[in-house]
Design goal:
Largest sheet: 4 strands, mixed
Structural class: alpha+beta
Order of helices and strands: EHHEEEH
Number of domains: 1
Mean pLDDT: 94
CATH class: Alpha Beta
Distance between the termini: 17 Å
CATH architecture: 3-Layer(aba) Sandwich
Number of strands: 4
Strand content: 25-35%
Bound molecules: FE2/S2 (inorganic) cluster
Shape: globular
CATH superfamily: Glutaredoxin
Number of helices: 3
Low-confidence stretches: none
Oligomer: single chain
């Protein structure tokens, strides 16, 4: 098991309206494609207090805002993957 890295996806009402369910399924697919299923603990979160900034993901200490179903793939590669690598090296 080891220590998985927690990735929180906001499932609050504002993020819900922006299509968080599509982001969720995209994230699950990306995690799977990168072989990260065993390393990431994907959790739904209540409002992460950034409702004005699009869908919010929190990974480790980093909060990533303005996620949407169209950009989740590129944001995953450019912002989420690097955090995961850093966390793993701790
Ligand atoms: S509902 Fe997602 S940050 Fe508030």
């Amino acid at each position: 098991m080891g220590d998985k890295i927690a990735l929180h996806l906001c499932m609050g009402s504002a993020c819900h309206q922006l299509g968080v369910h599509r982001v969720l399924s995209a994230l699950q697919k990306l995690m799977h494609e990168h072989g990260l299923d065993a390393e990431i603990d994907l959790k739904g979160a209540f409002c992460l207090d950034s409702c004005m900034h699009g869908i919010v993901i929190k990974v480790g200490e980093k909060t990533i805002t303005d996620i949407n179903p169209g950009n989740v793939e590129s944001r995953f590669a450019s912002e989420i993957l690097p955090v995961l690598k850093n966390e793993k090296q701790r």
